[in-house]
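Tokenised fold entry reproduced for everyone:
>
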Amino acid sequence: MNITELNNRPDLSSDNKLHRIYEQLGMLIKAINNKDLPADTERSISQHVAVVNASALDGAALGKLVKQQQTAILKLLEKEHKIVAKNHYRNMWMLLGFTAFGLPIGSAFGLSIGNIGLIGVGLPIGMAIGAAVGSSMDKKAFKEGRQLDIEIKL
């Protein structure tokens, strides 16, 4: 069983941002079709696609709906099968490194020198740590065949 394809909507060509969002969902579906997934997962993903296909919305409301369904599909794949898009872990860990490592490092540095204004020094350090950890997790997911051949741009 294959996942339902997105309907072609020529009315989106006038709005570049909406067209990119809609096209990204179509490419995600194609990338998922290349994976061997259980039938119940494929049915669930097809239901999310059917919501978008049945929608009569346009403009920003359609863009919001497409993003919601895309996020739901990605969460389902990650939760059930540990399948993620390219650079998923890097993006997630960069934010975590920024807050979990960068702020404490910057605070400690600022307090030790006596100038709390230097708290920002730790932020790029934490971001680099997070990016390194996330990139290694992305490489591991690629080696294990758990990575989709698409990078999600928000």
Remarks:
- The first helix runs from residue 16 to 33.
- The mean pLDDT is 90.
- Helices lie at 16-33, 39-54, 60-81, 88-113, 122-143.
